[in-house]
Amino acid sequence: MFSRLTRPQALAVCALPVVALIATAVFAPLPFSVAQPGSTANVLGSFKGSQVITISGASVRRTTGQLRMTTIVATGPDAHVSLGNVIDGWFATDRAVMPRDAVYPSGNNVKEIERHNAEQMKQSQDAATRAALGYLGLGKDKDIKVSLKLADVGGPSAGLLFSLGIIDKLHGDGKGGDLSGGRTIAGTGTISPDGTVGAVGGVSLKTRAARRDGASVFLVPKAECTDARAELPEGLRLVPVTTLKGAVAALTALEHGGSVPSC
What we know:
Blueprint: H1 7-27, E1 32-42, E2 46-47, E3 50-51, E4 53-56, E5 66-74, H2 83-91, E6 96-99, H3 100-103, H4 110-135, E7 145-148, H5 159-170, E8 184-187, E9 190-191, E10 197-198, H6 203-212, E11 217-221, H7 225-230, E12 237-241, H8 244-256
Helix pairs in contact: 4-5
């Protein structure tokens, strides 16, 4: 024998699967990472107790001002990111939702990703050294050794700032002054051995980290100007760059009153 359900009872029964589906969607892991502004480091100084740039075989200048590389901090590759986390991240001004594949190589475990990031950092350091020494005309025939150390930071995005730091320590602005002009300059960008600056991602978060830590100027890969302008902190000036040579020229112009590019 079966009894007929009343309309409210029927609606309640039908609603149960819908509620279950919604709950599953809200709490199920999604292929995203939630990122926020990370630490910055003055490449002309020390970071976590170690000198970032150490040079031997050449005279090193005493510098003023700061050249700060910037980072983002993202949820780990194995973190559980739910729909609720994604929605919160979309509406937060101090966080950003990014595809996990844009932050971590797809399909790798945590150890493989850590190893990959360490390799990228090493390649970035090598490229930064070659680009800086090449810019200064100091080839392999010169007995100059550069050591770069940035504890617990991986990936290639510090390349541009590494190169600028090496140039500042060896050459400055070429007129007896510093590339920074005594300012706190921040930025991001990959670097290739020939001095080409590449895009990195997470720029809007890095500008926030830069301004938080006192920067007034931010060097940004030109291709990412739009992203950098989207939520630009007040008091931070964007300077787009495509090459190491262009970055040096922009900083020199900034100090000596020349024409400086803008986004």
